[in-house]
Amino acid sequence: MHCQTIVLGAGIVGVSTALHLQARGRQVLLIDRDEPGSGTSHGNAGLIERSSVIPYAFPRQFGALLRYGLNRQPDVRYSLAHLPKAAPWLLSYWRQSAPGRVAKAAADMLPLVQRCVEEHDALIEAAGLQALVQAKGWIEIYRDNGLFEQAKKEVLGLARYGLQYEILDRGALQAREQQLAGDVVGGIHWLDPKTVSNPGGLTRGYAGLFVQRGGQFLHGDARSLRRVEGGWQVDTQRGTVGADEVVACLGPQSGELFERLGYHFPLGIKRGYHMHYGTRGNAALAHAVCDTQGGYVLAPMARGVRLTTGIEFAASDDAGNEIQLRRCEALARKLFPALGERLDDRPWLGRRPCLPDMRPVIGPAPRHPGLWFNFGHAHHGLTLGPVSGRLLAELMTGERPFTDPAPYSATRFD
Predict the structure, then answer these.
(1) Is the model's pLDDT at 32 over the cut of 90?
(2) What's the CATH number of domain 1-56+111-128+198-265+357-414, 3.50.50.60, 2.40.37.10, 3.30.530.20, 3.40.640.10?
(3) Whole-model pTM over 0.85
Protein backbone atom coordinates (compact mmCIF):
# COMPACT_ATOMS: atom_id res chain seq x y z
CA MET A 1 0.00 0.00 0.00
CA HIS A 2 1.33 3.43 -0.92
CA CYS A 3 -0.11 6.89 -0.35
CA GLN A 4 1.02 10.48 -0.49
CA THR A 5 1.21 11.13 3.25
CA ILE A 6 1.32 9.05 6.42
CA VAL A 7 0.36 10.76 9.68
CA LEU A 8 1.77 9.00 12.74
CA GLY A 9 -0.33 9.51 15.85
CA ALA A 10 -4.11 9.68 16.13
CA GLY A 11 -4.42 12.10 19.01
CA ILE A 12 -6.08 15.45 18.48
CA VAL A 13 -2.98 16.88 16.75
CA GLY A 14 -2.53 13.96 14.38
CA VAL A 15 -6.20 13.60 13.49
CA SER A 16 -6.51 17.34 12.86
CA THR A 17 -3.38 17.32 10.69
CA ALA A 18 -4.76 14.41 8.67
CA LEU A 19 -8.06 16.24 8.14
CA HIS A 20 -6.37 19.44 6.96
CA LEU A 21 -4.10 17.57 4.55
CA GLN A 22 -7.07 15.61 3.25
CA ALA A 23 -9.02 18.84 2.70
CA ARG A 24 -6.14 20.04 0.52
CA GLY A 25 -6.30 17.02 -1.73
CA ARG A 26 -3.73 14.76 -0.13
CA GLN A 27 -4.24 11.01 0.06
CA VAL A 28 -3.59 10.38 3.75
CA LEU A 29 -3.11 7.29 5.91
CA LEU A 30 -3.49 7.78 9.68
CA ILE A 31 -1.59 5.31 11.88
CA ASP A 32 -1.57 4.71 15.63
CA ARG A 33 -0.90 1.71 17.83
CA ASP A 34 -4.08 2.50 19.79
CA GLU A 35 -7.53 3.82 18.97
CA PRO A 36 -7.86 7.51 18.05
CA GLY A 37 -8.13 9.84 21.02
CA SER A 38 -7.07 7.28 23.62
CA GLY A 39 -3.88 9.00 24.82
CA THR A 40 -3.34 12.49 26.19
CA SER A 41 -6.22 13.73 24.03
CA HIS A 42 -8.58 11.68 26.19
CA GLY A 43 -7.51 12.70 29.66
CA ASN A 44 -7.53 16.50 29.75
CA ALA A 45 -9.91 19.04 31.30
CA GLY A 46 -11.83 19.51 28.04
CA LEU A 47 -10.98 23.18 27.53
CA ILE A 48 -10.60 24.83 24.13
CA GLU A 49 -8.58 27.51 25.82
CA ARG A 50 -8.91 30.75 23.88
CA SER A 51 -8.08 32.76 27.01
CA SER A 52 -4.64 31.20 27.63
CA VAL A 53 -2.67 33.93 25.91
CA ILE A 54 0.20 33.74 28.44
CA PRO A 55 2.12 30.43 28.51
CA TYR A 56 2.53 28.45 31.72
CA ALA A 57 5.93 29.62 32.95
CA PHE A 58 8.24 28.23 35.60
CA PRO A 59 7.85 30.16 38.89
CA ARG A 60 10.76 32.49 39.59
CA GLN A 61 9.79 34.03 42.94
CA PHE A 62 11.91 32.74 45.82
CA GLY A 63 8.92 32.05 48.05
CA ALA A 64 7.20 29.96 45.38
CA LEU A 65 10.38 28.01 44.66
CA LEU A 66 10.77 27.27 48.35
CA ARG A 67 7.19 26.02 48.67
CA TYR A 68 7.53 23.77 45.64
CA GLY A 69 10.90 22.56 46.85
CA LEU A 70 9.24 21.15 49.98
CA ASN A 71 7.16 18.97 47.61
CA ARG A 72 3.93 19.34 49.57
CA GLN A 73 1.89 21.49 47.17
CA PRO A 74 -1.21 20.11 45.44
CA ASP A 75 -0.55 21.73 42.06
CA VAL A 76 3.01 20.53 41.46
CA ARG A 77 4.95 17.58 42.84
CA TYR A 78 8.08 15.76 41.80
CA SER A 79 9.67 12.36 42.16
CA LEU A 80 12.90 12.74 44.09
CA ALA A 81 14.47 9.88 42.13
CA HIS A 82 13.64 11.61 38.83
CA LEU A 83 14.89 15.05 39.84
CA PRO A 84 18.58 14.63 38.82
CA LYS A 85 17.56 13.54 35.32
CA ALA A 86 14.97 16.31 35.00
CA ALA A 87 17.23 19.06 36.42
CA PRO A 88 18.80 20.23 33.09
CA TRP A 89 15.38 20.49 31.46
CA LEU A 90 13.93 22.31 34.48
CA LEU A 91 16.86 24.75 34.46
CA SER A 92 16.25 25.50 30.78
CA TYR A 93 12.53 25.96 31.48
CA TRP A 94 13.38 28.34 34.33
CA ARG A 95 15.65 30.39 32.06
CA GLN A 96 13.01 30.57 29.34
CA SER A 97 10.53 31.79 31.97
CA ALA A 98 12.25 35.14 32.46
CA PRO A 99 9.64 37.90 31.93
CA GLY A 100 10.99 39.08 28.58
CA ARG A 101 11.16 35.55 27.19
CA VAL A 102 7.65 34.72 28.38
CA ALA A 103 6.38 37.87 26.65
CA LYS A 104 8.09 36.76 23.42
CA ALA A 105 6.63 33.26 23.76
CA ALA A 106 3.17 34.76 24.30
CA ALA A 107 3.53 36.87 21.15
CA ASP A 108 4.70 33.86 19.15
CA MET A 109 1.83 31.65 20.36
CA LEU A 110 -0.90 34.27 19.98
CA PRO A 111 -1.69 33.57 16.29
CA LEU A 112 -2.41 29.94 17.18
CA VAL A 113 -4.43 30.75 20.30
CA GLN A 114 -6.50 33.38 18.49
CA ARG A 115 -7.72 30.88 15.88
CA CYS A 116 -8.21 27.86 18.14
CA VAL A 117 -11.98 28.15 18.60
CA GLU A 118 -12.86 28.86 14.97
CA GLU A 119 -10.72 25.98 13.73
CA HIS A 120 -12.46 23.63 16.17
CA ASP A 121 -15.86 25.06 15.24
CA ALA A 122 -15.37 24.14 11.58
CA LEU A 123 -14.55 20.53 12.42
CA ILE A 124 -17.27 20.26 15.07
CA GLU A 125 -19.89 21.34 12.56
CA ALA A 126 -18.58 19.09 9.79
CA ALA A 127 -18.49 16.08 12.11
CA GLY A 128 -21.86 16.84 13.76
CA LEU A 129 -20.36 16.94 17.26
CA GLN A 130 -22.16 20.01 18.62
CA ALA A 131 -23.65 17.98 21.48
CA LEU A 132 -20.17 17.52 22.98
CA VAL A 133 -19.29 21.22 23.11
CA GLN A 134 -20.62 24.13 25.15
CA ALA A 135 -19.87 27.84 24.84
CA LYS A 136 -20.03 28.64 28.56
CA GLY A 137 -16.38 29.37 29.21
CA TRP A 138 -14.75 28.38 32.50
CA ILE A 139 -14.25 29.97 35.92
CA GLU A 140 -11.09 30.59 37.94
CA ILE A 141 -11.81 30.27 41.67
CA TYR A 142 -9.92 32.23 44.32
CA ARG A 143 -9.77 31.41 48.01
CA ASP A 144 -7.43 34.23 49.05
CA ASN A 145 -8.31 37.92 48.90
CA GLY A 146 -4.76 38.97 48.13
CA LEU A 147 -4.43 36.57 45.22
CA PHE A 148 -7.85 37.62 43.93
CA GLU A 149 -6.91 41.29 43.96
CA GLN A 150 -3.64 40.49 42.19
CA ALA A 151 -5.51 38.46 39.57
CA LYS A 152 -7.90 41.35 38.88
CA LYS A 153 -4.94 43.64 38.22
CA GLU A 154 -3.36 41.07 35.91
CA VAL A 155 -6.60 40.77 33.95
CA LEU A 156 -6.49 44.51 33.21
CA GLY A 157 -3.03 43.96 31.75
CA LEU A 158 -4.54 41.59 29.18
CA ALA A 159 -6.78 44.27 27.66
CA ARG A 160 -4.85 44.32 24.38
CA TYR A 161 -5.86 40.71 23.72
CA GLY A 162 -9.56 41.57 23.58
CA LEU A 163 -10.62 38.72 25.85
CA GLN A 164 -14.15 38.54 27.21
CA TYR A 165 -14.49 37.92 30.93
CA GLU A 166 -16.51 38.77 34.03
CA ILE A 167 -15.06 39.41 37.47
CA LEU A 168 -17.28 37.77 40.08
CA ASP A 169 -17.38 38.72 43.73
CA ARG A 170 -18.32 36.05 46.24
CA GLY A 171 -22.06 36.59 45.81
CA ALA A 172 -21.95 36.63 42.01
CA LEU A 173 -19.77 33.52 41.96
CA GLN A 174 -22.11 31.56 44.22
CA ALA A 175 -25.10 32.69 42.17
CA ARG A 176 -23.41 31.32 39.06
CA GLU A 177 -22.25 28.08 40.75
CA GLN A 178 -24.64 27.51 43.63
CA GLN A 179 -23.04 24.29 44.84
CA LEU A 180 -19.68 25.87 45.65
CA ALA A 181 -18.84 26.30 49.30
CA GLY A 182 -15.71 26.62 51.37
CA ASP A 183 -13.72 29.83 51.60
CA VAL A 184 -14.13 31.14 48.07
CA VAL A 185 -13.82 34.92 47.82
CA GLY A 186 -14.45 35.41 44.10
CA GLY A 187 -13.60 34.32 40.61
CA ILE A 188 -12.97 35.27 37.00
CA HIS A 189 -15.30 33.83 34.39
CA TRP A 190 -13.47 33.52 31.04
CA LEU A 191 -16.12 33.63 28.33
CA ASP A 192 -14.19 33.00 25.08
CA PRO A 193 -13.17 29.38 25.66
CA LYS A 194 -15.41 26.42 24.90
CA THR A 195 -15.67 23.23 26.94
CA VAL A 196 -15.88 19.63 25.78
CA SER A 197 -17.78 16.98 27.74
CA ASN A 198 -15.85 14.09 26.19
CA PRO A 199 -12.44 15.11 24.79
CA GLY A 200 -11.59 11.58 23.66
CA GLY A 201 -14.99 11.34 21.99
CA LEU A 202 -14.36 14.61 20.17
CA THR A 203 -11.07 13.29 18.79
CA ARG A 204 -12.72 10.01 17.75
CA GLY A 205 -15.46 12.03 16.08
CA TYR A 206 -12.86 13.96 14.10
CA ALA A 207 -11.22 10.65 13.15
CA GLY A 208 -14.62 9.39 12.00
CA LEU A 209 -14.96 12.45 9.78
CA PHE A 210 -11.53 11.70 8.30
CA VAL A 211 -12.60 8.13 7.43
CA GLN A 212 -15.99 9.32 6.15
CA ARG A 213 -14.17 11.61 3.74
CA GLY A 214 -12.16 8.72 2.33
CA GLY A 215 -9.17 8.50 4.66
CA GLN A 216 -7.85 5.28 6.16
CA PHE A 217 -6.89 4.52 9.75
CA LEU A 218 -4.60 1.59 10.55
CA HIS A 219 -3.01 0.23 13.69
CA GLY A 220 0.76 0.34 13.40
CA ASP A 221 4.00 1.06 15.21
CA ALA A 222 5.56 4.47 14.56
CA ARG A 223 8.88 3.15 15.84
CA SER A 224 9.12 1.03 12.70
CA LEU A 225 9.39 4.15 10.53
CA ARG A 226 12.28 3.89 8.09
CA ARG A 227 13.52 5.85 5.14
CA VAL A 228 13.59 4.04 1.80
CA GLU A 229 14.29 5.08 -1.74
CA GLY A 230 11.53 7.45 -2.79
CA GLY A 231 9.95 7.92 0.61
CA TRP A 232 9.12 6.27 3.92
CA GLN A 233 7.75 2.95 5.22
CA VAL A 234 5.90 1.91 8.38
CA ASP A 235 4.77 -1.52 9.59
CA THR A 236 1.04 -1.87 10.26
CA GLN A 237 -1.51 -4.58 10.97
CA ARG A 238 -2.05 -4.83 7.22
CA GLY A 239 1.62 -5.09 6.39
CA THR A 240 4.16 -2.53 5.29
CA VAL A 241 2.81 0.78 3.98
CA GLY A 242 4.73 3.49 2.20
CA ALA A 243 4.36 7.19 1.50
CA ASP A 244 6.15 10.10 -0.09
CA GLU A 245 5.97 12.09 3.14
CA VAL A 246 5.33 11.35 6.80
CA VAL A 247 4.17 13.55 9.66
CA ALA A 248 5.10 12.68 13.25
CA CYS A 249 2.35 13.79 15.66
CA LEU A 250 3.30 11.49 18.53
CA GLY A 251 2.91 13.81 21.50
CA PRO A 252 4.77 12.46 24.55
CA GLN A 253 6.08 9.51 22.51
CA SER A 254 7.77 11.81 19.97
CA GLY A 255 11.20 11.21 21.50
CA GLU A 256 11.03 7.52 20.66
CA LEU A 257 11.09 8.50 16.99
CA PHE A 258 13.17 11.66 16.69
CA GLU A 259 16.01 10.41 18.89
CA ARG A 260 16.39 7.33 16.72
CA LEU A 261 16.70 9.65 13.71
CA GLY A 262 19.45 11.68 15.37
CA TYR A 263 17.46 14.66 16.65
CA HIS A 264 17.87 15.91 20.20
CA PHE A 265 14.95 18.18 20.93
CA PRO A 266 14.59 19.06 24.65
CA LEU A 267 11.20 17.40 25.07
CA GLY A 268 10.06 17.12 28.67
CA ILE A 269 7.03 15.36 30.14
CA LYS A 270 4.62 16.86 32.66
CA ARG A 271 2.48 14.06 34.01
CA GLY A 272 -1.09 14.55 35.23
CA TYR A 273 -4.01 12.53 36.54
CA HIS A 274 -7.77 12.51 36.32
CA MET A 275 -10.60 10.78 38.14
CA HIS A 276 -14.37 10.87 37.58
CA TYR A 277 -16.85 11.31 40.41
CA GLY A 278 -20.56 11.10 40.88
CA THR A 279 -22.48 13.83 42.70
CA ARG A 280 -24.79 13.73 45.69
CA GLY A 281 -28.44 14.44 45.18
CA ASN A 282 -29.21 16.55 42.15
CA ALA A 283 -26.08 18.66 42.48
CA ALA A 284 -24.26 19.65 39.30
CA LEU A 285 -21.59 21.99 38.07
CA ALA A 286 -22.68 24.35 35.31
CA HIS A 287 -19.10 25.27 34.32
CA ALA A 288 -15.60 23.92 34.49
CA VAL A 289 -13.96 25.52 37.52
CA CYS A 290 -10.27 25.83 38.34
CA ASP A 291 -9.03 26.16 41.91
CA THR A 292 -6.07 28.43 41.23
CA GLN A 293 -4.32 27.61 44.50
CA GLY A 294 -4.93 23.88 44.24
CA GLY A 295 -4.01 23.74 40.58
CA TYR A 296 -6.82 21.33 39.69
CA VAL A 297 -9.90 21.60 37.49
CA LEU A 298 -13.37 20.22 38.15
CA ALA A 299 -15.20 19.81 34.86
CA PRO A 300 -18.68 18.42 34.11
CA MET A 301 -18.18 15.50 31.73
CA ALA A 302 -20.33 12.87 30.10
CA ARG A 303 -19.11 10.33 32.69
CA GLY A 304 -19.54 12.59 35.72
CA VAL A 305 -17.40 15.31 37.26
CA ARG A 306 -13.78 14.98 36.14
CA LEU A 307 -11.02 16.18 38.43
CA THR A 308 -7.77 16.83 36.56
CA THR A 309 -4.59 17.51 38.50
CA GLY A 310 -1.73 19.89 37.85
CA ILE A 311 1.85 18.80 37.16
CA GLU A 312 3.88 15.82 38.31
CA PHE A 313 7.55 15.59 37.35
CA ALA A 314 8.41 11.90 37.24
CA ALA A 315 9.83 9.45 34.72
CA SER A 316 7.35 8.98 31.91
CA ASP A 317 7.15 5.22 32.43
CA ASP A 318 7.00 5.28 36.24
CA ALA A 319 3.90 3.70 37.74
CA GLY A 320 1.16 6.13 38.69
CA ASN A 321 0.49 7.10 42.28
CA GLU A 322 -2.32 8.91 44.08
CA ILE A 323 -0.35 11.45 46.11
CA GLN A 324 -1.27 14.46 44.01
CA LEU A 325 -4.80 13.28 43.27
CA ARG A 326 -5.55 12.79 46.98
CA ARG A 327 -4.29 16.27 47.81
CA CYS A 328 -6.49 17.79 45.12
CA GLU A 329 -9.48 15.62 45.97
CA ALA A 330 -9.40 16.81 49.59
CA LEU A 331 -9.49 20.43 48.42
CA ALA A 332 -12.17 19.71 45.83
CA ARG A 333 -14.51 18.19 48.42
CA LYS A 334 -14.33 21.41 50.42
CA LEU A 335 -14.95 23.54 47.34
CA PHE A 336 -17.71 21.31 45.95
CA PRO A 337 -19.19 19.35 48.89
CA ALA A 338 -21.56 17.45 46.60
CA LEU A 339 -18.62 15.62 45.01
CA GLY A 340 -19.53 11.97 45.37
CA GLU A 341 -17.81 8.61 45.05
CA ARG A 342 -15.10 7.77 42.57
CA LEU A 343 -16.37 6.21 39.35
CA ASP A 344 -13.08 4.90 37.90
CA ASP A 345 -11.25 1.80 39.09
CA ARG A 346 -7.96 3.70 39.16
CA PRO A 347 -6.71 7.19 38.29
CA TRP A 348 -5.99 7.91 34.65
CA LEU A 349 -2.37 8.96 34.07
CA GLY A 350 -1.50 11.23 31.15
CA ARG A 351 1.69 12.77 29.83
CA ARG A 352 1.93 16.30 28.44
CA PRO A 353 4.74 16.83 25.88
CA CYS A 354 6.47 20.11 26.74
CA LEU A 355 9.38 22.09 25.35
CA PRO A 356 11.17 24.53 27.67
CA ASP A 357 10.58 27.56 25.43
CA MET A 358 6.79 26.96 25.61
CA ARG A 359 6.30 26.58 21.85
CA PRO A 360 5.53 23.41 19.86
CA VAL A 361 7.57 22.09 16.95
CA ILE A 362 5.59 22.54 13.73
CA GLY A 363 7.40 22.15 10.41
CA PRO A 364 9.91 20.12 8.41
CA ALA A 365 12.64 17.93 9.88
CA PRO A 366 15.93 19.71 9.15
CA ARG A 367 17.89 16.70 7.85
CA HIS A 368 15.23 14.35 6.47
CA PRO A 369 13.34 15.46 3.35
CA GLY A 370 9.73 14.37 3.48
CA LEU A 371 9.60 14.16 7.29
CA TRP A 372 7.51 16.71 9.18
CA PHE A 373 6.92 17.34 12.89
CA ASN A 374 3.88 18.50 14.86
CA PHE A 375 4.36 17.92 18.60
CA GLY A 376 5.11 19.60 21.93
CA HIS A 377 1.82 21.39 22.62
CA ALA A 378 2.22 21.10 26.40
CA HIS A 379 -1.01 21.87 28.28
CA HIS A 380 -2.90 22.89 25.13
CA GLY A 381 -2.93 19.92 22.78
CA LEU A 382 -6.73 19.83 22.63
CA THR A 383 -6.84 23.60 22.17
CA LEU A 384 -4.22 23.82 19.43
CA GLY A 385 -4.69 20.54 17.55
CA PRO A 386 -6.83 21.85 14.67
CA VAL A 387 -5.02 25.17 14.26
CA SER A 388 -1.54 23.62 14.29
CA GLY A 389 -2.80 20.95 11.89
CA ARG A 390 -3.90 23.70 9.55
CA LEU A 391 -0.55 25.49 9.73
CA LEU A 392 1.41 22.33 8.97
CA ALA A 393 -0.90 21.37 6.10
CA GLU A 394 -0.41 24.82 4.59
CA LEU A 395 3.37 24.42 4.80
CA MET A 396 3.31 20.93 3.31
CA THR A 397 1.11 21.85 0.35
CA GLY A 398 2.82 25.13 -0.51
CA GLU A 399 -0.11 27.25 0.56
CA ARG A 400 0.62 30.62 2.10
CA PRO A 401 0.58 30.00 5.88
CA PHE A 402 -1.81 32.08 7.95
CA THR A 403 1.07 33.01 10.28
CA ASP A 404 4.85 33.01 10.26
CA PRO A 405 5.93 29.43 11.13
CA ALA A 406 9.46 30.43 12.17
CA PRO A 407 8.79 30.45 15.96
CA TYR A 408 7.85 26.75 15.80
CA SER A 409 10.76 25.61 13.62
CA ALA A 410 12.72 22.51 14.63
CA THR A 411 15.92 24.36 13.75
CA ARG A 412 15.60 26.68 16.75
CA PHE A 413 17.29 24.01 18.90
CA ASP A 414 20.38 23.68 16.71
Answers:
(1) yes
(2) 3.50.50.60
(3) yes
